[in-house]
Amino acid sequence: MKKKKNEARPVLTRDAVKKALALLPVPATKRDLARALGVTGGERIALKRIMRELEEEGALERGPKRAFRAAGELPEVLPMEIVDRDPAGEMLASPIDWHGEGPAPRIVTEPPRDRAIRALGIGDRFLGRLRKDKDGQVASVIKELGQSAHRVLGVIQIEQGQAIVAPVDRRTKQFFVLDRAGAQKVARGDIVLVEPLAGRDRGRLRARLRETHGNLDAPGAISLISIHEHGIPVDFPEAVTREAVEVSRGALSLSGREDLRAVPLITIDPEDARDHDDAVYAEPDTDAGNPGGHVVYVAIADVAHYVRPGSALDREAAKRGNSTYFPDRVVPMLPHELSSDKCSLREGEERACLVVRMVIDAQGRKRHHRFVRGLMRSAARLTYAEVEDAITGKPGPRVAPLMARIITPLLAAYRAMEKARDAREPLAIHVPEFRARLGEDGKVFSIDQRPSLEAMKLIEEMMIAANVAAAETLEKAKIPLLYRVHEPPSDEKISAYADYLSSVGLKFAKGQVIKPAAFNRLLARVAGAEHEAALNELTLRTQSQARYSPESLGHFGLNLARYAHFTSPIRRYADLVVHRGLIRALNLGSDGQSDGLSDGEAAALEATAEHISTTERRSMAAERDSIDRYLAAYMQDRIGAEFDGRITGVARFGLFVKLEGLGADGLVPISSLGTDFFQHMEKQHALMGKRTRKTYRLGDRVRVMVAEA
Predict the structure, then answer these.
(1) DSSP-assigned letter for residue 21
(2) What secondary structure does DSSP assign to 627-683, as a single string?
(3) Which residue has the higher pLDDT, 413 or 18?
(4) What pLDDT score does 228 carry?
């Protein structure tokens, strides 16, 4: 179609080039772009320059045959490889030819519709077609391309002079023999990434060495395995580190900020906290119209001041999605210069912040709130334990001088907010959490249950209130945002939950409109009873998984109609997006609002929500796996010892048991239960002996012996 003579042509800018590229088929040539933008003559040189700049910055990727695509964009049809299986059993594939930053995306793959194509397994390659559905990208199989040599992470064992690779993933049953060249570069206990080869050596599959990642006996080896197994990006690109150093050197000014340095905001964190991104302060409300009311300040590190949309820092933070925490290290979303320094609210140091000032009544109900950009100076860095001692009337020497002005008003405001929380009735599930405590040698010396302290609940309630205020402000201003959503349990999960309850003499109506209070009443009934722990665990498993979404779907667990993450932009990209939205909504931007939410970001919120929900799940899986490995390492010295435990899962092949006081999970194979034939009673979550009628149910106490770790 010819362009009319008087029709306005797009101005040749970087944004115009990016928008045109997004609308063109993937990939697109320079000629396609020039045609779409109406570029002719001498303007072609300017277009070439803009494309080169975008490519150097990583916003544009060069494909085959002189074609281009926006960074991270995948063509509709591409060769892919099955690389993993998700917890639901779905096959996950990644592009074979991946040149983007960070790990290749993992895409759910539909079973082949063509009966001539066999069911694919890990390592198989295929030509796939991508499409989007409500859960993200899905790949359908067009044509099988044959099996690939996928990569395996393992530990070197030496047997009869051969370097044997034992996979760290116990689901991978095959051991591999390292080729001669690789064997000369490794030692017993080395963690290696290998690529299987064709053929066998003494009956075992052969493999080629790709990477080495230290020794299993070295401190940090366990978390290192989880990092590499789950593809957690560790090292920052040079451009990102350089930019972090540059922006951290900038001087702070009061221009566009409120001076809050006289407000005695304090941070309250765990003893081993690696960053401090939130601070709180409260005081009685002097308004006569609000008797018994309080004013609560929640100050959050102003990460948006340093991490501007489209910058190298921003692209890297978006790619990572969040920080990942292990017992011995943190893999941060932002470089050290920001995460541990300029964006950490250190005691006595001036810091840029975004603050919400909330006025609540005597019953903890919020009357109104206001967001400001400020400059603060933390009055104290306290730990949960120190504040807990103060709450119980035993303040230590560091806290005692702060009691009258800071701690007592904070506690009074929390007691009011506690009333509002109880009236709201959020989900009250009590499942103990355990932590591995490591010595200087990186070995586990104890497993402790994490305490549940009033000081933690104080911070939690104030953070929840701040998150709600952020969502309300953005909704009112009609600014797109990322909600933190937690949908009610599915009908299928509720049905299975009710079936189990009926087997232990409890009722749960399947057809009712489920509210958190229904679960709370049930859990209150079994408090102190034999099945209390099992029911709390099962109630937790029945819930949906929280995620991010540009749609307001509510938060079932907190029993809130709207909720957004605002309080941790150091470690969650979602919070940074919310900060930018507030800056835009309230005209708080500096440098002509360049640090507020851009139109491009707003348009891409659905894709951003999908991506960061995925990176969050990846981090959770890596963190969980590392804890499991630390627990297994701790139990290695306890082979043959007996422990009390509870049955936390029942399957047709055996019982899953959690050891009391340790949190370690283990499998009791059905073959070790005796000579009787045990039937799996799925709805009752039980195994029953056909001859003896001996029954093992979910929640039962058992005595077990550790046979293997």
Answers:
(1) H
(2) HHHHHHHHHGGGTT-EEEEEEEEEETTEEEEEETTT--EEEEEGGGG-SSPEEEETT
(3) 413
(4) 81
* Helix/strand/coil for 702: strand
Backbone dihedral region of 153: left (phi > 0), alpha (psi from -120 to 50 degrees) or beta? beta
**Distance between the two ends of the chain, CA-based, in angstroms?**
69
Is-cis flag, bond preceding 409, omega within 30? no
Please give the structure tokens belonging to residue 616: 């969050």
> Side chain identity at 667, as an amino acid letter?
L
Which among 471, 195, 412, 109 has a CA at the least distance from the CA of 283?
412
| Residue 300 CB neighbours (<10 A) | 25
Whether the Cβ atoms of residue 373 and residue 383 lie closer than 8 Å to each other: no
Among 101, 102, 84, smallest CA distance to 93 is for 84
Question: How far, in Å, CA of 173 to CA of 154, rounded?
Answer: 12
Question: CA 423 to CA 333: how far, in whole Å?
Answer: 36
Contact call for residues 568 and 279 (beta carbons, < 8 A): no
Q: Which two tokens stand for residue 178?
A: 């390292």
| Pairing between β-strand 162-167 and β-strand 190-201 as defined by DSSP bridges | unpaired
Q: Taking the CB of residue 73, how many other CB atoms lie within 10 A of it? A: 16
- Is 697:642 a contact under the CB 8 Å cutoff? no
Count, residues in the chain: 709
In 473-562, at which residue ranges do the beta strands (DSSP E only) sit?
483-485, 547-549
CA distance 250 to 196: 50
Average pLDDT on 556-574 reads 97
Instruction: Return the CA Rg of the chain.
Output: 28
Q: Determine the distance from the C-alpha atom of residue 256 to the mean position of all C-alpha atoms in its chain, rounded to a whole number.
A: 33
What's the rounded Cα separation, in Å, for the pair 203 and 242?
A: 50
Task: Return all residues near 179 (Cβ < 8 A) that are at least 6 apart.
Answer: 197, 206, 207, 208, 209
> Which of 359-373, 643-657, 673-687 is the most confident on average?
359-373
Burial of 703 by CB count in 10 Å (0-12 exposed, 13-18 middle, 19+ buried)? exposed
Most confident of 229-243, 350-364, 441-455, 682-696: 350-364
Cα–Cα distance for residue pair 613/324, rounded to 1 Å: 13
Task: Say whether pTM exceeds 0.70.
Answer: yes
Residues 625, 231 contacting (CB under 8 angstroms): no
One-letter amino acid identity for 621? A
SS3 state at 236: coil
**pLDDT of res. 101:** 56
Distances (CA, A) of 272 to 325, 328, 329, 383: 12, 10, 11, 9
| DSSP result, 338-391 | IIIIITS--BTSEEEEEEEEEEE-TTS-EEEEEEEEEEEEBSEEEEHHHHHHHH
**Rounded Cα–Cα distance for residues 110 and 519 (Å):** 35
Rounded CA separation 630/661 (Å): 15
Q: Tell me which of 370 and 100 has the higher pLDDT.
A: 370
Kind and range of the H or E run holding 52: helix 43-57
